Amino acid sequence: MKIASFNINGVKARLPRLLEWLEGCKADVVCLQELKSLDENFPRLEFEDRGWHLELHGQKGFNGVALLSRAPLHDVRRGLPGMEDDPQARYIEGRHDGVLVARSICPMAIRPPALNMITSWISWSICAAMRPGL
């Protein structure tokens, strides 16, 4: 299985470049970050018409993550386990051929208390990824 990642930095601005890149990409799953788009505004048909299945976790203006796959994903989760009410769209996961694929965006900060928040967020992510049943 081949997994690729692309920091799109805004789907509206980078759509042509992303579609061009996907044409040559031989990945089974593509992880996108920084969609900067709500799910309902994401140009879904541009991808579906090219044979991609989409799982989105978007946010207007900031963040946003997605998983594109050649086959439908299973067990999709949006938001870190235990943090599903987090208003920031920073995490999505789904299974492809029994493999759990996750895309996350770590909060960025350069001084406390934001650094404490980042440390907690990373710790939470690691614990979530190691949860039983995976």
UniProtKB/TrEMBL annotation:
<dbReference type="InterPro" id="IPR020847">
    <property type="entry name" value="AP_endonuclease_F1_BS"/>
</dbReference>
<dbReference type="InterPro" id="IPR005135">
    <property type="entry name" value="Endo/exonuclease/phosphatase"/>
</dbReference>
<dbReference type="GO" id="GO:0003677">
    <property type="term" value="F:DNA binding"/>
</dbReference>
<dbReference type="Pfam" id="PF03372">
    <property type="entry name" value="Exo_endo_phos"/>
</dbReference>
<feature type="domain" description="Endonuclease/exonuclease/phosphatase">
    <location>
        <begin position="4"/>
        <end position="98"/>
    </location>
</feature>
<dbReference type="GO" id="GO:0008311">
    <property type="term" value="F:double-stranded DNA 3'-5' DNA exonuclease activity"/>
</dbReference>
<dbReference type="InterPro" id="IPR037493">
    <property type="entry name" value="ExoIII-like"/>
</dbReference>
<dbReference type="InterPro" id="IPR036691">
    <property type="entry name" value="Endo/exonu/phosph_ase_sf"/>
</dbReference>
<dbReference type="GO" id="GO:0004519">
    <property type="term" value="F:endonuclease activity"/>
</dbReference>
<protein>
    <recommendedName>
        <fullName>Endonuclease/exonuclease/phosphatase domain-containing protein</fullName>
    </recommendedName>
</protein>
<dbReference type="GO" id="GO:0006281">
    <property type="term" value="P:DNA repair"/>
</dbReference>
